[in-house]
Specification:
single chain; 133 residues; mainly alpha; 2 domains; 0% strand; flat
């Protein structure tokens, strides 16, 4: 019981330091550097992308709380995103955001869903009545 509590507290400290405090420091450092030089800095873009994916993973872990090891998986993924040599955020961004095939499939799926909604669901909802005649 003590070992489990110790592991959980160690994971919380690791999560707090490595996934929140260190990236916040780096982001503020590169923001100050960006404002001083008035030039583009790739590291600043990497850290802002990190914060976007961090918030998405945080929300996903809150929605999937029932999934076994959801918190631990989130901590590991965020550690990989925060590590300066791995830079998983740029890899994730290239795959999800700038991948044209994925974007085309997403747009196509949205159009199909809208057509199905307009053709099938709206007429069914309009013909639905709570009072039987």
């Amino acid at each position: 019981m003590v070992f489990i509590a110790l592991c959980q507290s160690l994971l919380i400290v690791l999560d707090l330091f490595c996934n929140l405090l260190y990236p916040a420091y780096e982001t503020l450092f590169y923001l100050a550097k960006f404002r001083r030089n008035e030039t583009y800095n790739a590291q600043f873009t990497i850290w802002t992308t990190y914060w976007i994916f961090y918030s998405v993973l945080y929300a996903a872990s809150k929605l999937l709380y029932f999934f076994p090891f959801a918190y631990e998986i989130r901590v590991i993924v965020i550690l990989l995103m925060a590590h300066p040599k791995v830079e998983a955020t740029s890899k994730i961004q290239r795959f999800f955001v700038t991948n044209p095939l994925l974007l085309i499939k997403l747009i196509d799926m949205r159009i199909r869903l809208k057509q199905r909604f307009d053709d099938d669901w709206i007429p069914a909802l309009k013909s639905f009545s709570l009072i039987k005649k």
